UniProtKB/TrEMBL annotation:
Annotated GO biological process: methylation
The protein's name: Uncharacterized protein YpbQ, isoprenylcysteine carboxyl methyltransferase (ICMT) family
Natural source organism: Streptococcus equinus
Membrane topology (UniProt): Multi-pass membrane protein
Keyword Cytoplasm appears in the UniProt entry: no
GO terms assigned for molecular function: protein C-terminal S-isoprenylcysteine carboxyl O-methyltransferase activity
Superkingdom classification of source: Bacteria
Pfam families: ICMT
Record flagged with keyword Transmembrane helix: yes
Chain ranges passing through the membrane: 43-62, 69-88, 130-156
Length: 177
């Protein structure tokens, strides 16, 4: 049980480190004349992420879950998600934020990861992270109750991002990486 709690607290701490980076980038983007879009969807996604963690850990505590093969697969997915989050933040640099922010003269980052996996932060970071947390904590009720709402919120976020890429980012040019 203590292993599950330690892993979840570690993941939460890692998320806080990336949140700090996001806040720093957000301030710089806004100070340079950038703008935030999709504020409501960002708030919903943040709330759902916190709820998912809280209820998944609650399920683990109530069931007295121990690390087993299912939980180990969850941990592997969580580690993969951290690696992908790190990769995406390095590729996007100062324009990476948790929120939907567009910098002045924001250019499209043309890297194979963004070419072949349109939204790697959602499909290679958030999805594996949530599935990993669910497996680690054996959180079936959390998954059944919260994940569908999360998927809808991500759908709206991706629509917003696609629109902004087409209308605001691509006209500014392409930055090859």
């Amino acid at each position: 049980m203590i292993i599950i709690i330690t892993i979840m607290l570690s993941m939460f701490f890692i998320r806080l480190v990336f949140l700090k980076l996001s806040i720093q980038n957000e301030r710089e983007i806004l100070a340079a004349g950038g703008r935030e879009y999709g504020k409501q969807v960002s708030k919903v996604i943040t709330l759902l992420h916190i709820l998912f963690y809280f209820f998944a850990l609650s399920e683990a505590l109530l069931r007295k879950v121990h690390l087993d093969i299912v939980g180990l697969w969850g941990l592997i997915l969580m580690l993969f998600s951290i690696f992908m989050l790190y990769t995406v933040t390095r590729l996007l640099g100062k324009i990476w934020t948790i929120k939907l922010m567009i910098a002045n003269n924001h250019q499209y980052v043309d890297h194979w990861l963004f070419r072949y996996i349109k939204h790697p932060n959602y499909f290679l970071n958030i999805a594996p992270e949530l599935i990993g947390v669910a497996l680690l904590c054996h959180a079936r009720y959390t998954t059944i109750l919260i994940l569908p709402f999360y998927m809808v919120a991500i759908y709206f976020r991706i629509r917003q991002e696609n629109y902004l890429i087409k209308c605001l980012i691509l006209p500014n040019g392409i930055q090859r990486k």
